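INSTRUCTION: Work out how this chain folds

Token vocabulary: learned, describes local backbone geometry

RECORD BEGINS BELOW THIS LINE
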Amino acid sequence: MSKVLDYFLDYVKYDTQSKANEDQVPSTKKQYALARHLAEQLKEMGAENVRLSEEHCYVYATIPATAKQEVPSLGFIAHMDTSPAVSGKDVKARVIHYEGGDILLNEEKQIVMKAAENPSLKLVKGQDLVVTDGTTLLGADDKAGVAEIMAAAEYLLAHPEIPHGAVQIGFTPDEEVGRGVDFFDVEGFGADYAYTVDSGPLGDLEFENFNAVNYRVTVTGKSIHPGSAKGVMKNALLMAMEFHQMLPVFENPAFTEGYEGFYHLDEMNGSVEKAVMEYIIRDHDAEKFDKKVERFQKIAEYLNEKYGEGSFLLTEECSYRNMREMIEPHMHLIDNAKKAMEKLGIPPLVSPIRGGTDGARLSYMGLPCPNLCTGGCNAHGRFEYACVQSMEKIVELIIEIIRLYA
């Protein structure tokens, strides 16, 4: 047994919630507390070249090579922050043995994780789960990944007889707000290839993600007293609704799955004078994605002709591309991950990510980087949990992948 559970229960005590719409990285200073703790632990276990970026809160370290021949240097990366969606402060984690049925998380508040609403629980019946008291998220996304990398690092450093190339470790801030690798030092990291450890149930293996762009649509209207508004008023709220109604009705997240893309109106607020809509546009297929973006832009152009230039302003907030294009020339990353899973009795579950990942951006920064499972489920919510046996298996998986490259 590794120390992965001990590490995990330690790390979830740290409130590392990131914050959207902040200019600086990290978006919250409290992420530094866990970063410093991890750096100290890495030094204590004997890792080399341990460094903490005081400016942007990245932790890097190296497990030196033990192989006699030259082999690729692999990296393993996880993020320290937790989602802004639900509080990550004062997490009260506990381990339960799950034998099926509903899980009473909080008797006082009657917070229950219902089996009927959480079908993933069927897969972990008879195993040990880390859960919360239902008032916070757990933080398995991605502190389970952090703990698994740390447990694997500790094992390799304690067993130098295992031949392997140099292993690079990286922990990032702000992944949950889309800025996790804004200042990641790819060249200084020193890996030829890497894996993010940031997916879900045991067996998850991902090397495809959405092509993505975020848009802010600012609608400028003209306010006047309703009693004298005829021919003068331009109601920004109604104009915003008109914009949205021109998008395909069934191309939204509520009607899509698998490889299907969507337009998603994530936030809307405003008044007659001004309205703001926050959109995300996603599609795995690059051609379909480009057509979605083109349609979005043409709607704005048409409505600007109708209501006057400047009535609709599109501001691109962030974007990333499907990493498959960058991974395909290096499919040994997927093949070896599958081979390691099969050796350990883990059925590989290869599926597209219906979202983004630090690995996508890193892949386009020159570091091919598919995504491995963590054993966590129900991320970003109070019903988040992590399976202890899965976390133990993922520690073995990381070690086995490293061995396959020696």
